[in-house]
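Holo model, iron/sulfur cluster. Inputs:
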Amino acid sequence: MNQPAVTTRRVLTRRGVVWLGQTCNLRCRFCYFQARIEAKDHPEHPFMALDKAKAIFDTLRNHYGNNAIDIQGGEPTIYPGIEELCSHSATIGLMPTLITNALVLAKREACQRLKDSGVRDLLVSVHGLGKNYDDVVGVPGAHVKQMAALDNCVAVGMPVRFNCVLTKSSLPHLADVARLAVSVGARAVNFIAFNPFEDQQKGERSLEDVAAYSEVAPPLVEALDVLRAAGIEANVRYFPLCQVPEAYRQHLYNFQQLPYDLHEWDYASWSWTDMKPQRTREGGLSPLISLRQANFRSPMYKGVPNYLDDPNISVDDEYRHSALIRAREHCGYKYGPACAACGAQDICDGFHGDYAAFFGFGELAPIAAPSAGPITDPRHYISQQRKTVEPEDAGWAL
Ligand code: SF4
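Output:
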């Protein structure tokens, strides 16, 4: 197996994303698509036809220039034709990753078939361990199957990365999830704040699952220490910068930092695949849209004269504008009163939309501005992080 290189160079990601349909073999309590997974008559519930999925992949490769893709379902390993789709993806130069609970891969031959179809790696959702995991995903025996699947990945040489959502139930397990990542040779671990995204914006969130930032930080730092000691890339998504000590801020990716994570999604192609026609079984595909055109639809930029053809707006600016729209308009992130005195406010999203209603703004801890003035470069902290670069990306990312 080719080993990835590491770098502190930050460049824009070329990874796309697709949702094949919200059909799943688990029922995670914190799922962002919970309602669509449950409702069989929801237009996004059924898997799309293979030809439509291939057309989306071709567009990401040929129009948006993506060279990798995160394939989501629901659960993509139960998608009929997943091996043919992954084979097509690898053939056109779009290296496929499956975002998966991996339960299907408890059968070694299923794991081997995916490996043989050209899957580059798996991003396995490890949201806790043991009975705790079974409870949170709603299926008894799920943890045992997931561990068997990870054993199979090691046996067949399938690279893995981990996703772990920071719900209250996962906090006691974070360090052990990190140790598990070390033991199976995971190439990266992403800890993801439990946000009010998609179906979770509709009021189901409660204190049963939502933890205060100050509850999350100690076990999170402990897990980061485990991964740092083992030299494994660790990313923390959507966590306010002031909520961890400065030495750990290199791991924190708010919306302005995400485009510089090669394991995250390209805002340009994401703006297109996120449109309903690309997420439903029925119908054709939407007209193509550039990131600048997508930004211009937002009230934040709609009134800006010449926004669409202003030569002074760089590509990095376009991604930053998209980040601000995503944080403030799509997800309702908010600054508290103390943020006004923070030297990092320009590059931080603040607290997630409904957080203050649960816990208030008392945990805010404004960061002192450096002597040169407030921090304005989104890469200020993440430029210190050593990130893995897959061999296929080495020519442009190193
Ligand atoms: S802007 Fe607010 S939430 Fe972000 S680091 Fe500063 S004080 Fe914390």
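Residues 5-278+383-397 form a domain with the TIM Barrel fold (CATH 3.20.20.70). The chain has a mean pLDDT of 93.
Archived with the compound record.
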